[in-house]
Design goal:
The protein has 354 residues and is mainly beta. It has 2 domains: 169 residues, no CATH class; 173 residues, Neuraminidase (6 Propeller), CATH 2.120.10. The protein is built from 2 helices and 31 strands.
Length: 354
């Protein structure tokens, strides 16, 4: 079983629904699952990673892509009608291998099945970010020598380099109103207008993985093994990652705001578990289990909030990886996929896709 015997597994419901489908029931479509579904990546059907969407409890699954190469890092458009993702160019070795591809294609896939569109090639190995009106995607690429921030329309038109500055920039994040982009550079986190003008530093001593609060007033980011929050105007810096006993948590993934902006979820590299903290730095708590004495346990990672902020989906695994969900208070952890494949990169459908 995928993640420790103590974890509840929603496998019987899944098997029952698959049996009903095999006996003549209607298979769900991606559109059926889009309102409150989880898009994820899996190699369950073949050697390549492909995109799937499932119900929030894992009971229904619909396949999104079927390609001869690997598709990864899906992100919902704000209106849930399209999914942006990265695709490995045909014939290229996978990223992370000794001769791995460091540039992937960006595709947009309408969930109505009308067919995907490649909107950019030579993209860096990181998920693109949708503007909140769903019209543009921001991403980082080293196509011009150094890594810069680019934007492109959702149909692939009007590709624009915003930071042609001779240094390595990455991790673009749109402000909720779409007027600004935060990004990470060699000196830390900076903010610019969405047309690339008016670049100003938010931090001056490092920082990465910026994430805007839903109201656009603050930006959370990683800095020196901590998670910090700063007002978008550059004031009121505070560290929100606290110490657990005498051991300081070490963070691996970017901070992820809850939909109402009251909490931040993150993964801890030092404990291999998912944590939640209030945006003011209070109430730090571990919300995913690390089964004591379970030698198969490996990690929990990549939290994603449900649209109502009540539940967190995350990658859970040991050897292979599965998708789990847990209530935001740490109760009712459920493993919602269970197979010998690698299931990962889960992203919940919502008006503010993670």
């Amino acid at each position: 079983m995928g993640h420790g015997a103590g974890r509840a597994v929603g496998i019987f419901t899944t098997l029952l629904l698959l049996l009903v489908s095999a006996c003549g029931g209607n298979s769900p479509t991606v559109q059926d699952l889009a309102d409150d579904g989880i898009v994820f990546v899996s190699d369950r059907d073949e050697e390549h990673f492909q995109l799937y969407v499932m119900a929030a409890d894992g009971s229904k699954i619909a396949r999104v892509t079927k390609s001869d190469t690997s598709d990864t890092h899906p992100v919902w458009s704000p209106d849930r009608t399209r999914i942006g993702f990265l695709r490995l160019p045909l014939g290229q070795p996978a990223p992370g291998t000794s001769q791995g591809a460091d540039r992937l294609e960006i595709w947009v896939w309408p969930i109505d099945g009308s067919g995907g569109v490649k909107v950019a090639d030579l993209a860096a190995e990181a998920a693109p970010a949708w503007s909140n009106d769903g019209q543009k995607l921001a991403f980082a690429s080293d196509r011009d020598g150094d890594r810069d921030i680019y934007v492109v329309n959702g149909d692939g038109s009007n590709l624009t380099n915003l930071t042609n500055d001779g240094v390595r920039d990455g991790e673009p994040a749109w402000s909720p109103d779409g007027a600004q982009l935060a990004f990470a550079g060699p000196e830390g986190v900076s903010i610019m207008s969405s047309d690339g003008s008016g670049i100003r530093p938010l931090t001056t001593v490092g920082g990465e993985s910026p994430a805007w609060s839903p109201d656009g007033r603050e930006i959370a980011f990683k800095e020196a093994g901590e998670i910090a929050v700063r007002s978008a105007n550059g004031s009121d810096l505070r560290i929100v990652s606290l110490q657990d006993g005498n051991a300081t948590l070490t963070f691996a993934g970017p901070p992820v705001w809850s939909p109402d902006g009251s909490r931040i979820a993150f993964e801890s590299l030092s404990t291999g578990t998912v944590w939640v903290v209030n945006a003011d730095g209070s109430g730090l708590r571990k919300v995913s289990a690390d089964p004591v004495g379970d030698s198969t346990f490996d990690f929990d990672a990549a939290p994603a909030w449900s649209p109502d902020g009540a539940t967190i989906a995350f990658v859970c695994g040991q050897g292979d990886s599965e998708i789990c969900t847990v209530n935001a208070d740490g109760s009712n952890e459920v493993q919602i996929t269970d197979n010998d494949a690698f299931d990962q990169h889960a992203a919940w459908s919502s008006a503010h896709s993670q």
